[in-house]
């Protein structure tokens, strides 16, 4: 079960909302409204992500429905929203291409079989208490992975945004550099200026909407606006059918089942690993980030996050849907729209089901270019220069980890990028004094005297050893006065420093106190709060 307080209140937020059926009776009005608004955001996103993944558009809707109506109840978080995400586009696209060998229909059926297996593994990992694995990865490498995925999305969807056949452009380009050099060709040879205009307007709407008053974005989501505007313009100019969505009119007849005939091939096993790594990491990081925004400071149960996402992926892919994660932007919008419990996720999925049953014909009037423009902006946001600037502020070495990971992810391969970034960060930590013998188990000690606990870091520590550190921190009883002593640590990297701040916040919310001492003996690598630290002298 999650660490939800059973009673009490948070200043300014009121009593902690109840969960499950009592929570529905108590909070259905606010959760229903938030779920409805989120469904309007999610509808075009689900369709766009499916198209970008070279999957049937209905596959994105299936993932959104299952993510809301099933996964939300089994997951360990209260306010995250589950569904298909831009961060998985590149993986689905690659899996469909490699497994299908030129046949996208078969490729997607093989891919859904891969995701079913991933879901089953996630469920097992949840029962094995593997939620702590999220503590292993370097934060800057994770940011770099997402930025690299953003670069790929931008380059691939730009061509669709201007009305070109994205799959054909990708085939002829022969790689990411080819996609860059093909941009002038796509602009010069666009088939329809109206479609290109719709794509450009969609990109513009996504860019300017955050600048409008918050009340506008809260009740009139930008993805809905661009979908409706694109529909109106396409209908007014009677654009060719090939530029519009193709959503099946009979939802249940459109459900497709996985094909497991290639599940034991090397390519399938490779993508099982990639999906498992990226989807699980993104979901756990999202749950952690949303916990910090929860008005009632509830903490997610990361092991149940594995179980919930695993069940959601198993069912979604089993019905022909895309893989899902806890998606950070929709989850943040959920909080902004006043959601109080997991029921908002359920209502969001329910409204998606209503839309696809009631208005499939209307959905088929939406131009693909409008959704592509939306995804180009999402890709830009993932790889925004501000993301790199923020990491540079933390430290030059962190910027190198992020930039190297992003470039290799974008121009070589996701796993290669993450592996190289992680290895580079690990080698840097070794050069700065982390003993090879202590890569995964930093020396620590815990001394308790009454209500006072002294937790000492007795050796240098990097991100690769934080899972061990966090495991020992979690053995400290709640409600104590904890002092984390850095005096004997020769070096602390940014990831460990940042996650110690996270621990301090979480522990304080549960009624204890945390102070950090011995920092005066260290020199930070930058002015950032959680910069890497090296002991003086």
Structural features, described:
- By secondary structure, the chain is of the alpha+beta class.
- It folds into 3 domains: 28-379, no CATH class; 382-431, no CATH class; 436-535, STAS domain (Transcription Regulator spoIIAA), CATH 3.30.750.
- 60% of the residues lie in helices and 7% in strands.
- The strands form 4 sheets. It has a 4-stranded mixed sheet. Strands 8-11-10 form a 3-stranded antiparallel sheet.
- A hairpin with a 3-residue loop joins strand 1 (9-10) and strand 2 (14-15).
- Residues 1-9 have low confidence and may be disordered.
Structural class: alpha+beta
Give the % helix: 55-70%
* Percent of residues in beta strands: 5-15%
Distance between the termini: 47 Å
Number of strands: 11
Low-pLDDT regions: 1-9
Structural domain tally:
3
Order of strands across the main sheet: 5-6-7-9
Sketch the major β-sheet: 4 strands, mixed
SSE diagram, text form:
Layout: E1 9-10, E2 14-15, H1 20-52, H2 57-74, E3 81-83, H3 89-100, H4 104-127, H5 139-161, H6 166-173, H7 176-181, H8 183-188, H9 193-208, H10 214-219, H11 222-236, H12 266-291, H13 302-318, E4 325-327, H14 328-336, H15 343-358, H16 360-363, H17 368-382, H18 385-394, H19 396-411, H20 414-431, E5 444-449, E6 452-457, H21 466-473, E7 481-485, E8 491-492, H22 494-509, E9 513-517, E10 522-524, E11 533-535
Parallel strand pairs: 6-7, 7-9
Antiparallel strand pairs: 1-2, 3-4, 5-6, 8-11, 10-11
Helix pairs in contact: 1-2, 1-11, 1-14, 1-15, 1-17, 2-13, 2-15, 3-4, 3-12, 4-12, 4-13, 5-17, 5-19, 5-20, 9-11, 9-17, 11-17, 12-13, 18-19, 19-20
């Amino acid at each position: 079960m999650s660490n939800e307080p059973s009673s009490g209140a948070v200043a300014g937020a009121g009593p902690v909302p109840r969960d499950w059926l009592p929570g529905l009776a108590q909070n259905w009005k606010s959760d229903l409204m938030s779920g409805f608004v989120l469904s309007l955001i999610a509808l075009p996103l689900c369709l766009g992500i499916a198209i970008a993944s070279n999957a049937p558009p209905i596959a994105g809707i299936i993932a959104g429905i299952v993510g809301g109506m099933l996964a939300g109840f089994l997951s360990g978080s209260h306010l995250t929203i589950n569904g298909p995400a831009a961060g998985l586009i590149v993986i689905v696209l690659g899996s469909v291409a490699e497994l299908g060998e030129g046949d996208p229909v078969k490729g997607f059926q093989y891919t859904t079989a891969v995701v079913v297996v991933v879901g089953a593994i996630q469920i097992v990992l949840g029962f094995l208490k593997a939620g702590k694995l999220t503590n292993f990865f370097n934060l800057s490498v994770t940011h770099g992975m997402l930025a690299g995925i953003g670069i790929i999305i931008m380059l691939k969807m730009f061509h669709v945004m201007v009305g070109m056949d994205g799959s054909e452009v990708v085939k002829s380009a022969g790689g990411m550099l080819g996609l860059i050099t093909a941009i002038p060709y796509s602009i010069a040879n666009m088939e329809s200026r109206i479609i290109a205009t719709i794509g450009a307007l969609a990109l513009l709407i996504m860019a300017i909407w955050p600048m409008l008053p918050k009340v506008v974005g809260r009740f009139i989501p930008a993805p809905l606006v661009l979908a409706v505007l694109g529909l109106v313009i396409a209908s007014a100019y009677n654009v060719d059918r090939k530029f519009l969505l193709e959503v099946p009119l009979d939802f249940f007849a459109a459900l497709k089942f996985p094909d497991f005939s290639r599940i034991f091939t090397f390519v399938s096993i490779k993508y099982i690993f990639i999906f498992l790594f990226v989807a699980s990491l993104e979901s756990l990081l999202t749950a952690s980030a949303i916990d910090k925004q929860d008005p009632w400071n509830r903490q997610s149960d990361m092991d149940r996050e594995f179980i919930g996402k695993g069940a959601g992926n198993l069912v979604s892919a089993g019905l022909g849907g895309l893989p899902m994660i806890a998606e950070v932007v929709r989850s943040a919008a959920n909080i902004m729209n006043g959601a109080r419990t997991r029921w908002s996720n359920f209502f969001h999925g329910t409204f998606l089901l209503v839309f696809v049953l009631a208005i499939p014909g209307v959905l088929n009037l939406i131009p693909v270019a409008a959704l592509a423009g939306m995804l180009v902006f999402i890709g830009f946001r993932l790889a925004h220069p501000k993301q790199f600037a923020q990491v540079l502020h933390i430290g030059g070495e962190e910027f190198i980890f992020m930039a190297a990971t992003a470039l290799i992810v974008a121009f070589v391969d996701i796993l290669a990028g993450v592996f190289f970034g992680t290895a580079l960060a690990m080698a840097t930590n070794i050069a700065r004094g982390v003993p090879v013998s202590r890569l995964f188990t930093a020396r620590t000690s815990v001394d308790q005297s009454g209500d006072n606990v002294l937790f000492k870091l007795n050796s240098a520590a990097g991100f690769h050893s934080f899972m061990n550190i966090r495991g020992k921190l979690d053995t400290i009883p709640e409600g104590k006065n904890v002092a984390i002593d850095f005096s004997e640590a020769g070096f602390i990297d940014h990831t460990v420093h940042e996650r110690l701040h996270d621990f301090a916040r979480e522990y304080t919310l549960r009624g204890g106190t945390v102070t950090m001492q011995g920092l005066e003996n260290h020199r930070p690598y930058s002015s950032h709060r959680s910069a890497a630290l090296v002991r003086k002298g």
